[in-house]
């Protein structure tokens, strides 16, 4: 019985290693990643355009469409609608995705941080309010 318990415990520990939420999106961790974005972007109820456009409702929004922000022609003409599939490579290397973008940012290289950042951005609706879970 003791051997069976030890074997079961070993199996559970090994299984947990493969089932950890390490690749799950974590909005709280994404908020920390967003600190590098704050130099140019705002998000939330009082967000305004700054060096970059405000990011309320960015997930699901057409690129180059925030009222009052002066986008590059490359961004306005990209035809991109921001979602996880388009934001992921863009956040990793903006210039490679939209050649000619004004966004002078080297990118977030860690794939987990990109996922977390997208989870954080996804919380905000176009009016800057957090969506209900």
Topology readout:
Elements lengths: L1 H17 L8 H7 L39 H4 L7 H9 L1 H4 L13 H12 L11
Helix pairs in contact: 2-6, 4-6
From N to C, what is the helix and strand string?
HHHHHH
Amino-to-carboxy terminus distance: 44 Å
CATH class descriptor: Mainly Alpha
Helix content: 25-40%
> What's the architecture in CATH terms?
Orthogonal Bundle
**CATH topology title:** Cytochrome Bc1 Complex, Chain D, domain 2
What is the makeup of the main sheet? none
Radius of gyration, Cα only, in angstroms? 19 Å
Please report the number of helical segments.
6
Number of domains: 1
CATH superfamily: Cytochrome c-like domain
As residue ranges, the low-confidence spans are 1-22
SS-derived structural category? mainly alpha
Walkthrough of the structure:
The chain has 6 helices and no strands. It has 133 residues and is mostly helical. The protein has one domain (25-122): Cytochrome Bc1 Complex, Chain D, domain 2 (Orthogonal Bundle). α2 (27-33) crosses α6 and α4 crosses α6. The model is unreliable at 1-22 (pLDDT under 50).
Based on the model shown, name its key terms.
single chain, 133 residues, mainly alpha, Cytochrome Bc1 Complex, Chain D, domain 2, 6 helices, 40% helix, disordered N terminus
């Amino acid at each position: 019985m003791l051997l069976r318990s030890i074997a079961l415990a070993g199996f559970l520990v090994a299984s947990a290693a493969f089932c950890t939420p390490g690749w799950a999106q974590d909005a709280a961790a994404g908020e920390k990643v967003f600190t590098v974005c704050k130099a140019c972007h705002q998000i939330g109820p009082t967000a305004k355009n700054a060096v970059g456009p405000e990011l309320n409702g960015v997930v699901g929004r057409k690129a180059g469409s925030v009222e009052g922000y002066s986008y590059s022609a490359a961004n306005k003409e990209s035809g991109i609608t921001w979602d996880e599939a388009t934001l992921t490579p863009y956040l990793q290397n903006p210039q490679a995705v939209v050649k000619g973008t004004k966004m002078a940012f080297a990118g977030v290289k860690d794939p987990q941080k990109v996922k977390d950042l997208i989870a954080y951005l996804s919380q905000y609706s176009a009016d800057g309010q957090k969506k209900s879970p």
